[in-house]
From TrEMBL, chain A:
Nucleotidyltransferase among keywords: no
One GO MF term: NADH dehydrogenase (ubiquinone) activity
Family that this chain belongs to: Belongs to the complex I subunit 2 family.
Gene name tied to this protein: nuoN
Organism: Haloechinothrix halophila YIM 93223
Stated name of the protein: NADH-quinone oxidoreductase subunit N
HAMAP family attached to this UniProt entry: NDH1_NuoN_1
Residues of the NADH:quinone oxidoreductase/Mrp antiporter transmembrane domain: 169-463
PANTHER family: NADH DEHYDROGENASE (PTHR22773)
Entry's localization field: Cell membrane; Endomembrane system; Membrane
GO biological process: ATP synthesis coupled electron transport
Pfam families, alphabetized: Proton_antipo_M
TrEMBL record, chain B:
Gene3D superfamilies per UniProt: NADH:ubiquinone/plastoquinone oxidoreductase, chain 3
This protein's UniProt keywords: Cell membrane, Membrane, NAD, Oxidoreductase, Quinone, Translocase, Transmembrane, Transmembrane helix, Transport, Ubiquinone
Record-annotated membrane-spanning stretches: 13-38, 72-93, 99-120
Known EC number: 7.1.1.-
GO cellular component, one term: NADH dehydrogenase complex
Lineage: Bacteria, Bacillati, Actinomycetota, Actinomycetes, Pseudonocardiales
Compartments (UniProt record): Cell membrane; Membrane
Protein's recorded name: NADH-quinone oxidoreductase subunit A
Membrane topology: Multi-pass membrane protein
Organism listed in the record: Haloechinothrix halophila YIM 93223
Catalytic activity field: a quinone + NADH + 5 H(+)(in) = a quinol + NAD(+) + 4 H(+)(out)
Alphabetized InterPro entries for the sequence: NAD(P)H_OxRDtase_bac/plastid, NADH_UbQ/plastoQ_OxRdtase_su3, NDAH_ubi_oxred_su3_sf
Function: NDH-1 shuttles electrons from NADH, via FMN and iron-sulfur (Fe-S) centers, to quinones in the respiratory chain. The immediate electron acceptor for the enzyme in this species is believed to be a menaquinone. Couples the redox reaction to proton translocation (for every two electrons transferred, four hydrogen ions are translocated across the cytoplasmic membrane), and thus conserves the redox energy in a proton gradient.
């Protein structure tokens, strides 16, 4: 048993911290903190430009720090923030963590570009206070203010930093703190839409209430696992599972509750109920950020927990997760067919994709890990670009997300329709897109692990889901445009850059995926 | 009885804690029970209203749009912030010698991280009552 108190005059040994390894996270959090100070002291007209400069510099700087660390990273990964006498640290920096950090930073950059756009809507897509009443006097005043509300930038950076910590957390308490750091800004950001205030507020309240429940589930599970293993560290939970005399009920209940908390964040059915409402109500750039980055973070965390902590108990949770994967794919594919609103349709598509990701996450082989990481990267870029294109088609009331207003879009704007078609095909998993490579890698890893039945179900679900993507394509190309339909806004440089980045990544990862697959399979989790 | 508990003098070490628990429970019950017995009973309108921390329970005045003012919560959140800060500073003050320069830097970062939102709230007018 480690000594608990220091004797009189004894010095504490400083915990081992490898600052070079965690520098990307520190840079993101540092930029977020400076962003708060900029909000406090800069006059209104300077805030947008300085916040944009600060956030982009922060993310690019974190990316450079990450690249510099990767160039001579120790083989097999390290853990840092290690207390005196401990065997593992609180943060693990290994190949999956580095891969996910790179993914999160790239997706965060694209999201920030979309969030910072002022060309589609004068003054940006956001309002200053999530609490403003729909149709109230203040809201109408705000709607005419064209200076952008810039609190959204530090909020995004805080959420991004939380996500980066989440995927690297090596014990459940660090993971919980990171979960809150990434969730709290997102709850607020969902309620900031300039148009359709009521939908946006509904989204924020639903996301907050259900997210608070999920956090409570997660925390309760952590408490039970601590009761079982006597530690919150992932490696020590795994060790305790192999040879503990404590009641297995604690272990199973703990695993169940922790995994439910993670599945909620990853919007996996049947814990998906918030997803369509929140994706629809939140401002579209924020929806893109949530759909891409939150999913990467949630599944990154789930991969680590399932592999490092719960692997010895895998025969206990394999069947429930199998069922959950099937339910999620079925809900996403079937309910997606009935949607009239594009954002809701993409939300159900993300639930189906979450099901595919669970198939990868529960495959505890090297191929299972690397294919899931690749899938996250590919899906993130595609979905950000999809929401970027959705924000372009507008009428007098803002974005026209109803399917009928997209009829005949190819005649108005062949370029936008072409890009959107390509992205939808990627979501459906057609060859020459990253979606195909991702699905192929995940399904073949699951097949090699002996999960043939699940793969067959996943293929059927993909085929069903392909129908509603293709329906939009048919609608855009083979329907007559409505007489007073929406116009395709020409986007400014920022949104153009975000859509280009997402589309190019979808294409490149679809044609030459080897470099990303090689990186993803360069190493496993640090034990 | 497991060895490590026996080694530290058995469960006797927890006796003061149990006594404190009993004392606080007893005091709470006593306070609630004694008030209606010995207190004077002079009711008025304000006393019969539900206790809501200084806010009119309902309805809100029309002048404010009928909405519940959140000023109290802003101040309350600020209070919690500094409350937590102090709670964390006490253990540091006791162990300042042992944790040395590392502890000093860690606590300084902690205080800075708490000061940043405070500065933000102050500069953006969060501390002005009206």
């Amino acid at each position: 048993m480690p000594q608990q108190f220091l004797a009189q005059g004894e010095q504490l040994q400083v915990p081992a911290i490898d600052f070079a390894a965690v520098l990307p996270i520190l840079i993101v959090f540092g930029a977020a903190s400076i962003g708060v100070l900029l909000e406090a002291f800069l006059p209104k007209h300077q805030r947008w430009s300085s916040q944009i400069a600060l956030s982009l510099t922060g993310i690019v700087g974190a990316g450079i720090a990450l690249a510099a660390y990767i160039s001579d990273a120790p083989e097999g990964g390290i853990t840092t923030f290690m207390a005196q006498g401990a065997t593992t640290g609180a943060i693990a920096v290994d190949t999956p963590a580095l891969f996910l950090w790179g993914t999160l930073l790239a997706l965060g950059l694209a999201s920030l570009l979309m969030i910072g756009d002022r060309s589609l809507e004068p003054g940006g897509a956001f309002i200053s206070q999530a609490g403003l009443q729909s149709g109230g006097l203040q809201t109408r005043e705000q709607a005419n203010v064209t200076g952008m509300q810039t609190e959204i930038f530090p909020l995004t950076l805080f959420a991004l930093g939380g996500m980066m910590t989440f995927v690297a957390a090596n014990d459940l308490l660090t993971m919980f703190i990171a979960l809150e750091v990434l969730s709290l800004p997102l709850y607020l950001m969902a309620g900031l839409a300039r148009r359709r205030r009521l939908l946006s507020q509904e989204a924020a309240v639903k996301y907050f209430l259900l997210g608070a429940f999920a956090s409570a589930f997660f925390l309760y599970g952590v408490a039970l696992l601590y009761g079982y293993a006597g530690s919150v560290k992932l490696a020590e939970i795994a060790a305790a599972t192999a040879g503990s005399s404590a009641s297995d009920t604690l272990l199973y209940a703990g695993i169940g509750l922790v995994v439910v908390g993670l599945l909620f964040k990853g919007s996996v059915g049947p814990f998906h109920t918030w997803t369509p409402d929140v994706y629809q109500g939140a401002p579209t750039p924020v929806t893109g950020f949530m759909a891409a980055c939150t999913k990467v973070a949630a599944f990154g965390g789930m991969l680590r927990v399932l592999t490092v902590a719960f692997e010895p108990a895998s025969w206990e949770w394999e069947v429930p997760l199998w069922l959950i994967a099937v339910i999620s794919m079925a809900i996403g594919a079937i309910f997606g067919l009935t949607q009239r609103d594009l954002k809701r349709m993409i939300a159900y598509s993300s639930i189906a994709h979450a099901g595919f990701l669970v198939v990868g996450a529960m495959t505890l082989t090297e191929d299972g890990l690397s294919s899931t990481l690749f899938y996250l990267l590919a899906y993130g870029f595609t979905t950000i670009a999809v929401f970027g294109v959705i924000s372009l088609v507008r009428d007098a009331n803002g974005e026209a997300t109803d399917l009928s207003s997209w009829a005949g879009l190819a005649k108005r704007s062949p370029l936008v329709a072409g890009v959107f078609t390509f992205l939808l095909l990627a979501l459906a998993g057609i060859p020459l897109t990253s979606g195909f490579i991702g699905k192929f890698a995940v399904f073949s890893a699951a097949l090699a692990d002996g999960n043939a039945a699940l793969v067959v179900i996943a293929l059927v679900a993909s085929a069903v889901a392909a129908f509603f993507y293709l329906r939009v394509v048919v609608l855009m190309y083979f329907s007559e445009p409505a007489a007073e339909g929406p116009a395709v806004t020409v986007p400014g440089a920022f949104t153009t850059a975000a859509i280009t980045l997402g589309t190019a990544a979808t294409l490149v990862l679809g044609i030459v995926p080897a470099f990303a697959l090689n990186w993803a399979s360069a190493g496993g989790f640090v034990p | 009885m497991p060895d490590d508990i026996a080694a530290s003098g058995g469960l006797d070490a927890y006796l003061p804690l149990v006594m404190l628990l009993a004392l606080s429970f007893g005091f709470a019950v006593f306070s609630v029970a004694i008030a209606p017995l010995v207190g004077p009973k002079r009711f008025n309108k304000a006393k019969s209203e539900p206790y809501e921390c200084g806010i009119e329970p309902s309805p809100q005045p029309v002048a404010g749009g009928g909405r519940i003012p959140v000023k109290f919560y802003l101040t309350g959140m600020l209070f919690i912030l500094f409350d937590i800060e102090m709670v964390f500073l006490y253990p540091y003050a006791v162990a300042a010698d042992a944790v040395g320069m590392f502890g000093f830097i860690a606590v300084t970062i902690f205080i800075v991280a708490i000061t940043i939102p405070y500065v933000y709230e102050w500069a953006r007018g969060g501390l002005e009552w009206d």
